[in-house]
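Hey,
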Amino acid sequence: MTNLLVRLLVKDYKNLQSPAVRARYGQMAGLVGIVCNLLLAAGKLAAGLLSGSLAITADAVNNLSDAASSIITLVGFKLSARPADEGHPFGHARFEYIAGLAVAVLVLVVGVELGKSSIEKIANPAPVVYGNLALLVLAASILVKVWMANFNRSIGRRIGSTALEATFADSRNDVITTTAVLAAALVARATGFSLDGWMGAAVAVFIIVSGIGLVKDTLDPLLGAAPDPALVKAIEERIDGYPGVLGTHDLMVHDYGPNRRFASAHVEMDADADVLDSHEVIDRIERDFLEQDNIHLIIHYDPVAPDDSVVGEARQALEAYLKTLDGRITIHDFRMVDGKKHVNYIFDVRVPPDFAMTPEELRADVEKSVKHDGRRVHVHLTVDYSYMAVSN
């Protein structure tokens, strides 16, 4: 069914890198969610009113909120597909993240309201009569929500959408919620013992806990969470594989929404190589990442002298000392300027976020501990904390 809907409703559905196609997928998912949830809400509301069950009525309200969530998802995808403009030069793709956050907040609100109603029901119990219609509606609802959960997960994974992942989790919660309500109804019919309020309270707790997790997951990309380390490693390894590249550092990845990544990196190349050749390689790297991965990559060219044995030995000695302070430390952009009584070491040092020394303490420690041919070393360093190399 999912593949059939995709083929019928999503034009050019195979072109997943296109923002317009992503928007069509999201809008289709939103429309499916609106229709299904409105039908479920109508059926459950009728069953809840006829049986007098708070749990079924609350489940109907939950489906109404799901329909609202689907509207938010639809609008979010439509807005995220808008092109860049003067006020938003990096586009509007983060609207998709905002839509996911709105859905997560709605999940929380539904959980809190259901909890309040359930506590009132426990304090003031009322008789509940579960007819065949109520049981049939609940069973049908479970089947529909199982399909919707699989549908949203499939589409969400296909286009890498956090908004649809949140919708999948919401549909999964609905399956658990409605199953619990159906179980309570069956127990009540078999024994006459009503679990309506208690079951509603348990479901409310589950929804609230799930909603908190959804808020965190959808809020992270908006706040600038670090990208997947595997992505960072893959970018660095690809850049290092180009001819003439001696090393890559200071890689930063900025996420402006699904398929809207911008990145910058420093690339070391032989200072004695032809500048035009090095420039052509850098242009090719940037072009390849844009065409093949839709990553807007900007590269800063760092010329180094790999054949200078004096500089190489000094760098190796400095690196060896820094490793005694913390094995995770690395250096780059190392240069050495000779003086009569001292030698200037100029370099960038990358330290882990929990490194104990301040930049000034590290500079003083290196100057005290490292010598060059018996002469004092003056240190000019720039500290890069490792989390900065992969932050959004």
